[in-house]
TrEMBL record:
UniProt cross-references to PROSITE patterns, sorted A to Z: SHMT (PS00096)
Binding positions ((6S)-5,6,7,8-tetrahydrofolate): 161, 165-167
Name recorded for this polypeptide: Serine hydroxymethyltransferase
Organism: Micromonospora qiuiae
CDD domains, per database record: SHMT
Amino acid sequence: MPRNVESTAFSSALEVIGGVEPRIADAIRAELADQRQSLKLIASENYASPATLLAMGNWLSDKYAEGTVGRRFYAGCQNVDTVEALAAEHARELFGAAHAYVQPHSGIDANLVAFWAILADRVEAPALQRAKARHVNDLTEVDWFALRRELGDQRMLGMSLDAGGHLTHGFRPNISGKMFDQRSYGTDPATGLVDYDKVAEAAREFRPLVLVAGYSAYPRKVNFRIMREIADSVGATFMVDMAHFAGLVAGKVFTGDFDPVPHAHIVTTTTHKSLRGPRGGMVLCGPELADQVDRGCPMVLGGPLPHVMAAKAVALAEARRPDFADYAQRIVDNAQALAEGLLRRGAKLVTGGTDNHLVLIDVTGYGLTGRQAEQALLDSGIVTNRNAVPQDPNGAWYTSGIRIGTPALTTRGLGLAEMDATAELIHTVLSQTTAGTGPDGTASKAKYVLDPALADKVSRQATELLAGFPLYPNVDLT
Ligand code: DSN
């Protein structure tokens, strides 16, 4: 392969890094090799473009820039201002949002910014009201202990974890579970789908301050118009965490009732999943919440990462191109082909299929736990993650599900035929894996039996499947 500009850029960077700590340069090379040879079906991962990756590796990283554009706590932020303003402009244009805040370092951070903005907007806490009335840096003078007492137990209603909701939507292992008194809505046990009448009933009983929609393992669309009506009926602020499906919104696959931006008061997202940007987060909102959202740093965030905001700007610019819409549609077409291929071979799928980027296999149909299935697939060169299914009998650690998603393989160029071949590989492994036993002969939720020769064979088939779709084809590090 001729050395081109991308090869030169990455090879030169690795040479410079290797001159200081060769083991790090080696780990970076090894990561590319691993990514190139594995069938990556983790629904929350993707492959960012070379331009996005390169935007992160530079001296923008050296700058402190707490505050917002044109209003910083440090001097010399003119270039960071340019970067942040461009990223926010691309985000507003792409999603049709009035306001975009591009500083959050992750999805959890974006959600924390949104929660504090909602509390500041809605709760009559004198300590917070005093801060709201003043300049952003007065937040450092807030009496945080008084504020915590004044906020009291505010309520949040979000999707339950086993139905596909996310930890940051008020669950105990996350700070949101300490900030809010949380109640969940699940899915219909017969169909696996959100039952909007039940959500409305839960909202009427619980009277939440915040109604959250959004998921990390629900394989269907959510009707955000109906959810907003439910929120309005009880005076709740409606927040959507679109981290998983932001790329489908950006690519106009989710429109109308299924586009959260026109319906929610506030929308959060990560930038690295189906949106295919750098690892990070973002908040979109209307003018009413914009001032509160912009207080994210120093309210709950450390200093912004200018190099990552630069990469967000690059990725968002890419997502505004017409070919991104084609990519987003192919993500869903591929997920549906994968689901159909699995169903045809006898797999049991939560909700019976998908209309987004992910498929949730209920592996109890193969007599396995999620943990056994995840490891057997990994032995066979197929990278997935275990995930709870609704009312999961095996709990959140072992689980009964395998979540698979198509954003990464779609970036790589795989299409409908390859999805069917992938379904065949997954089904082959799962149907030929059996649950193992512990040392005392009792059934184990972790141990499993899979013929290593079969695992090797599937691994080779996975590599052959990928061979026609080189990852980062213009990057040659040899
Ligand atoms: N870790 C992400 C996922 O895999 O869905 C969500 O936080």
